[in-house]
Amino acid sequence: MPRILLLGGTSEASALARLLAAQGVEAVYSYAGRTAAPIAQPLPVRIGGFGGVGGLADYLRTHAITHLIDATHPFAATISRNAIAAAHATGTPLLSLERPAWRAGSGDDWFHAADFESAAAALPVDPAHVFLAIGRQNLSAFAGLPHRWLLRLVDPPDGPLPLPRAHAVIARGPFDVETDRALMQAHGITHLVAKNAGGAGAEAKLTAARALHLPVILIDRPELPSRPTVTEPGDALAWLHHTPSARRGV
Fold first, then answer.
1. pTM to 2 decimals?
2. 66 and which of 116, 199, 224, 245 could share a cystine (Cβ 3.0–4.6 Å)?
């Protein structure tokens, strides 16, 4: 019988978890542990890291995992690289479930930045009001700039932020266009900085920026080695049914 390790933390991972549970597939849902109150899942859940490539490979062997599905955030590059390496080391079939990146449309004023430091350098020299919609992990790349910052975080900060002129809004998506537009107007936002995460749950801020004619600095996704990839949970389920299991000698 197949036994799946699902690396999650996204809406796509949750949708796939529901499909797996509905079909009675044995699976474990893995959270990285960065969110204080992760969304409940219909599968057994583990929380925390694995200890690098070696730790993940040991987990795959010890728990007789037959298939590994990486449905983490497109910017969770470390765990995705570890998954690729651990799958190769153990002979475990690996699939990436990854939402498509956002693409600019008519009326968008987007600048693509290669990384967080490039995004910080693309902001104006003079003080601006910036909606820094990147979470809390990479705020230090923007430290020392003269701007006022609007942050939107899932959890309240557990210590001082590296940005002294920051106002944090605690909220969990999905978000809608009218709410994001009102938020930007209330804070006098002049620029939006965001990661190109893709998906519908966080796209509202881009639509609101378009309506307000605001420039957007969009940080490109980190590059990852080639691996089998699908964009829909149903396609991941189909892959599972058509991909032979890893052989563990059990």
1. 0.90
2. 245
